[in-house]
Specification:
46% of the residues lie in helices and 11% in strands. It has 16 helices and nine strands. It has a four-stranded antiparallel sheet with strand order 1-2-3-4, with helices on one face. α13 packs antiparallel against α14 and α14 runs parallel beside α15. The longest helix has 20 residues.
């Protein structure tokens, strides 16, 4: 059914006849695009192009005519509507860019970090904004996305994991929003590197406030935590977790460094850990005399268990190291006395707060940020003194580690 017809003059052989018609309830327009020139320059060969304007019910005939007139005007100026539409189709979506980044853009990161990137892409980025073309993503859209992840209302769900009977609970939250924003920044920087966009829309966006680093326990609270660790119920059901938590508290090491600690990493004579790999690379990390005594007790209590790990897996069928320490710590903190009251309570306390408690206690004892940073294994970039400390066991570092660990040991063993 012919709805309207227009004929354009031969515009220098660029685009000829234009026709608006309807096929199968779909208004379309037809025009001619020139082919490549034949050996005779004066002869120009053209072919028909069909451009769909919409579907009946979604667009009225008058709207189709008006839209066709706009396209006709573009054709008069030498523009090709289908070429522009094809260019729009060729623009990557954010989901496609993220998958490309996971394949080729984050190979320099550690395996654990790459898993975190994959989780952020699959659980947050693709479900919420993965279908958007990368050229249409603005700073405001990313800020809205970060708020959605932080609230968790649009992404809360449970999914099957790769493990048998395993379940992944996607909840969102402040930590998820912060890490996902970091991944987005890396993804867009990857796009800039390949000249897909000119600027990073995630650059400069303020990350959600997370007060996890503000949580630590002071000396008196360490004493109370020690009484909780000594509780018979806790010693019966969670002894290995208590031993790991004590070592984190007395050394200031990261949870992953303690759980994956092997006996071969311990230099007993020089009183230090020789980690082949950490968050900041290969490190030599001194520890205090109290931590040394704790490790010696653990070594003597192996009872025929010759696992390479200091804290082996609790299940006999597994040969790896202890996992789920945070879950065990929460179970320990939920222990009640005979009166039904919690033995120890600290809002928001997690195992990483024990590392911050070590740093806080060291600062209270008068040690500088350089000394404390070296004991914690912070990056030595731009810190000459710390760099020397982290590559060799320094006597001043050992003295500081001895003093801090001994004070923590005394607090943990305090009764009453």
């Amino acid at each position: 059914m012919i709805m309207d017809a227009n004929r354009c003059r031969n515009n220098g052989g660029k685009i000829k006849i234009v026709l608006l018609f309807m096929i199968r309830k779909t208004p379309r327009m037809k025009y001619r695009r020139p082919r490549a020139k034949t050996p005779k320059p004066q002869i120009i060969n053209t072919y028909n192009i069909y451009l769909t304007l919409g579907r009946v019910g979604k667009i009225t005939p008058d709207q189709a005519r008006n839209l066709a007139r706009q396209k006709f005007a573009d054709i008069q100026y030498g523009k090709d509507p289908t070429s522009q539409r094809q260019q729009d189709k060729n623009i990557l979506t954010l989901a496609e860019l993220c998958l490309w980044y996971l394949r080729e853009g984050n190979g320099h990161k550690k395996p654990k970090t790459r898993l975190q990137d994959t989780s952020a892409v699959n659980h947050h980025i693709i479900p919420l904004i993965g279908g958007l073309p990368i050229t249409e993503i603005t700073r405001g859209r990313i800020e809205l996305f970060v708020r959605d992840v932080e609230s968790g209302e649009k992404i809360q769900r449970r999914e099957k994991s790769k493990n048998p009977r395993g379940v992944v609970a996607v909840r969102g939250g402040v930590a998820a929003a912060t890490s996902t924003l970091g991944v987005l920044g890396c993804v867009f920087q990857f796009a800039i590197k390949h000249e897909l966009i000119e600027r990073n829309p995630a650059h400069g966006i303020k990350r959600p406030a997370n007060n996890i680093k503000d949580i630590f326990i002071d000396y008196d609270e360490i004493c109370a935590l020690g009484r909780l660790f000594a509780n018979p119920k806790v010693q019966t059901f969670h002894k290995i977790a208590v031993d790991a938590l004590k070592l984190i508290l007395m050394t200031g090491c990261r949870k992953s460094e303690i759980l994956t600690l092997k006996w071969d990493y311990i230099d007993w004579e020089n009183q230090c850990f020789r980690f082949p790999d950490t968050k900041t690379g290969k490190q030599t990390r001194p520890f205090g005399i109290a931590a040394l005594r704790h490790l010696q007790n653990l070594y003597n209590q192996r009872n025929g268990d010759y696992s390479p790990y200091v804290f082996p897996a609790t299940k006999e069928s597994k040969d790896g190291h202890l996992v789920a320490l945070l879950k065990m710590f929460k179970m320990i903190l939920a222990t009640k006395d005979d009166s039904g009251n919690l033995i120890f309570y600290k809002k928001g306390l997690e195992n990483h707060a024990l590392r911050h408690s070590f740093a806080s206690l060291a600062a209270d004892m008068g040690y500088s940020d350089l000394i404390t940073g070296a004991l914690l294994g912070h990056s030595s970039r731009g810190r000459g003194i710390t760099a020397r400390y982290t590559h060799a066991v320094d006597k001043s570092l050992l003295a500081a580690a001895d003093a801090v660990s001994t004070k923590i040991e005394t607090a943990l063993n305090t009764k009453g």
